[in-house]
Amino acid sequence: MSETEPVIIVKDLVKKFGSFIANDHLSFEVYKGEIFGFLGANGAGKTTAIRILCGLSSPTSGEIMVAGYNAYNEADKIKKNIGYMSQKFSLYEDLTVTENIRLYGGIYGLSRKEIRSRTAELLEKLEIASVKDTLIRDLPLGWRQKLAFSVAIIHQPGIVFLDEPTGGVDPITRRQFWEMIYVTAHEGITVFVTTHYLDEAEYCDRVTIMTDGKIMALDTPLNLKKQFEVNTINEVFLKLARNT
Amino acid sequence: MQDQAVIIRQVSKSYGNTRALRDISFQVGKGELFGLIGPDGAGKTSLFRILTTLLLPDQGSVTIEGYDVVKQYRKIRNLAGYMPGRFSLYQDLSVEENLKFFATIFGTTIKENYHLIRDIYVQIEPFKDRLAGKLSGGMKQKLALCCCLVHKPAILVLDEPTTGVDAISRKEFWEMLGRLKAEGITILVSTPYMDEASLCDRIALIEKGSIMAIDRPENISGSFSKPIWAVRSREMYPLLIDLRQYPGVEKVYLFGQYIHLTLGNEGQEPGRMKKFLEDKGHEEVEIKVITPGIEDSFIELMSQQKRHE
What we know:
The structure holds 2 protein chains of 2 kinds.
Chain A: E1 6-17, E2 20-31, E3 35-40, H1 46-53, E4 61-66, E5 69-70, H2 75-80, E6 82-86, H3 97-107, H4 112-125, H5 141-152, E7 159-163, H6 171-186, E8 190-194, H7 198-201, E9 206-211, E10 214-219, H8 221-228, H9 233-242
Parallel strand pairs in A: 3-8, 3-9, 6-7, 7-8
Antiparallel strand pairs in A: 1-2, 1-4, 4-5, 9-10
Helix pairs in contact in A: 3-4, 5-6, 8-9
Chain B: E1 4-15, E2 18-29, E3 33-37, H1 44-51, E4 59-64, E5 67-68, H2 73-79, E6 80-83, H3 95-105, H4 114-124, H5 137-149, E7 155-159, H6 167-182, E8 186-191, E9 202-207, E10 210-215, H7 217-222, E11 228-232, H8 236-243, E12 249-255, E13 258-263, H9 270-279, E14 286-290, H10 294-308
Parallel strand pairs in B: 3-8, 3-9, 6-7, 7-8
Antiparallel strand pairs in B: 1-2, 1-4, 4-5, 9-10, 11-13, 11-14, 12-13
Helix pairs in contact in B: 3-5, 4-5
């Protein structure tokens, strides 16, 4: 992780829906190859902020740069240079494994040759060659989520956004998934991740905790635990959210 | 334990070639808070749908409060409260309208059993005119719980009530379950969160349609066969890679701020492991032996199950 190279810069991000302030002056930077945990209670404003960072929604005010592009008039360039997966939507269930890889490769502008070699690579890496012609809906959730993550970074973006990627996944697969995150970050791709499993927050390089549209804490897991004089991120979370 | 509220005997269920439930048998005592712990696709929902008469088992039988779920399903529908995993209320009715609707179909009124829902309802009452579809996740979950309590069920069946819910709301939800248990209601609850297991009287660990273990939470973690070592250092990913190379190591997996591992006969000495890691350049190395938790047990049982396949 190099602290000198920010790939996400957010200064005073405000997003209002009518009179409701969903994001209230958020400021933070995320560095190249960092695993950045984005935590908060339901309704704290996480999804709103992620949508803006992914170029899907415009901020009301503030300065937002993602992968070198600004969120106001370069949203399309942002979309091309990031990857995204969530628990709720990732792959097309009525397409097969290889069809999904081909579809996403095509969407991200990979050549046929690149798609062919990436497909072979993924099938081998994930050990799923035997199910390459199986429909996604017939695959166990854990396999699906690992494939969805790999497909989200098939175009080797600078940043990948993972929105609750491990929800409902069994404890062994959950850990394999986090090892994939480690490897990805090691290769220099920044990982921006949300989760409700607070033990997973411990795997992040740095963690933010949002409540009511504001960032209440931002530091390494170790420093946060020191600052709040507790032993786990779960306790930090409970302390912060209880105070509001 | 008093007599049984739920008796499940050798229940199996398949969907085509997929075996969702394999020969499941267990009992739940009256007034017990029973947790069914397992990941998505383990069979939790299929089992709960059979218990609530919404799905027929292929084999086996289930009785709830002495009534058979197949032959006497009408009886059971009156005495069970069921909260499905997906939000099931009418999105285009208000909070209050939903509650009234559920009270009416069960032939009761909100007033009659208000004491049961009061603690929960007061939290959503300020929004009683809001459409259910416009509620936040935590609020929806509270309303859904009120709606399945309004007819004073003898047994509550809650399918993953805390999935996708933040840590604070999860904590509050379990506090509510504690109060309902004190009212004498039998509660079956499923969850993918292993840390919620310790809040149940007894739990069943379920994976791939089979029950891997069933006991009080402290007995399940106590039955772990080997000591577990917890190790950390400043850089966790390199630590994980290096620990896999440690002589005598059996299993190594991430566990929050630590890495957990089990060792064979070799290498059972913390000083040696510390030196091994420091030689590889790790700093701030901490090594200790810990008591295994439910999640450690689940991982162990899951790998045993895999080996037998």
